[in-house]
Write a structure and sequence with these properties.
This protein is mainly β and 359 residues long. It is built from no helices and 30 strands.
């Protein structure tokens, strides 16, 4: 791609905060976003911010007993836009952002911190019931239906007597009809597991050699296609999940990135072949995935196996001296992104010319 045609990553505005930021999420169908984190005294920070006149303004804030680690709107309807959060006390809560005095749903999801959360069945994305998945330091991955009190509808537990690996990331996928749905989970030892909720079994598992900081499907509401796994050791893996070989598993490509931990990764909502990663060096990297001319072949025994594609670095931009720990694309405005970093600040940026990539 010619340098003049490359997408650019332009900072629109930034705001310094008085607390540690752990997650940032756009509120669907709005110019607002939520920031979740931890005050110096250990309490939970929840702020709603809005883009106004070239900057951002806090329009609502709430302080809670336990620090917030993660959040998602994925299980809420577009009409309600309720935020589900996981906190340091192991609690899953669902909030009406217009009235945050008390959650509309709350359950003690885990004994210790909820590291990761994702939702499906809401926002007109994904089929089936609205569900929330949580992953915790206790090694468990649990799926919750907010309409059902106190008990998870499914759970992935460590083997009895075996070590409980810290679960760092979870993601819904394969929700293309009301029967099919799966959850991907990444763990501190590099394990990546794919849990089939319809069959209630582990469908596949692999390892990315070191801690799996982030897992994300390119789309939730289609047959499994691509799965991104970000790692501690400056690498990410992209799995092609369309073809599962009985012994080789899913094919994948590995890419060096950021020269430090790859903390997070997000696919562009308007184009599932474009994705961005946030690095420990404070950089945002923007990539394009290209499929091979032939996505699968057959081995000598007649079993199909996948052929990995390639990735191209479109742009890289430094925003901070501290890690970019959260990243979220707007569903409504292509290229609009909000990010949080450990320098106690949030930034809103615009990625340009994304509609011209690949043309």
């Amino acid at each position: 791609m010619d340098a003049t045609d490359r997408p650019q990553i332009v900072e629109h505005c930034n705001k310094s905060l008085t607390y540690v930021v752990y997650d940032t999420r756009w509120i669907p169908s709005s110019a607002r976003f939520v920031v979740l984190g931890c005050h110096p005294r250990g309490t939970g920070a929840l702020q709603v911010m809005e883009l106004r006149k070239g900057g951002v303004e806090v329009v609502h804030e709430s302080e809670k007993h336990a620090a917030f680690k993660c959040g998602t709107f994925g299980a809420s309807s577009l009409a309600e836009r309720h935020l589900a959060t996981g906190d340091f006390d192991g609690r899953l809560s669902v909030w009406d952002l217009e009235r945050t005095e008390m959650p509309v749903y709350s359950v003690k999801a885990h004994d210790v911190i909820v590291n990761a959360i994702d939702g499906c069945g809401g926002l007109n994305i994904g089929s089936g019931a609205p569900e929330i998945v949580t992953g915790s330091r206790d090694g468990t991955v649990r799926v919750w239906d907010p309409r059902q009190k106190d008990k998870p509808v499914a759970a992935l537990e460590p083997e009895e007597g075996g070590p409980a690996r810290d679960c760092w990331s979870v993601a819904f996928g394969n929700s293309y009809n009301s029967e099919e749905r799966c959850v991907a989970a990444g763990f501190d030892n590099g394990d990546v597991k794919l849990f089939d909720l319809r069959m209630n079994e582990i469908r596949w598992e692999g390892n990315v050699s070191n801690g799996a900081c982030w897992v994300e499907f390119d789309r939730k509401n289609i047959e499994m296609n691509k799965l991104l796994a970000c790692t501690l050791e400056s690498r990410f893996k992209m799995y092609d999940c369309r073809t599962l070989h009985p012994t080789k598993g899913f094919c994948s490509l590995t890419e060096q990135a950021h020269k430090s931990t790859v903390w997070c990764g997000r696919f562009l909502p308007q184009n599932r072949d474009i994705f961005a990663t946030g690095g420990g060096n404070g950089n945002i990297n923007l990539y394009k995935y290209s499929y091979p001319s032939q996505r699968k072949m057959k081995d000598e025994h007649g079993y199909e196996y996948g052929i990995p594609g390639t990735v191209q670095l479109l742009q890289s931009k430094n925003f901070s001296t501290q890690p970019i720990c959260s990243l979220d694309f707007s569903q409504d405005k292509e290229g609009l992104v909000v990010m949080g970093s450990f320098d106690q600040s949030i930034r809103v940026a615009v990625m340009t010319k994304l509609d011209q990539v690949g043309k």
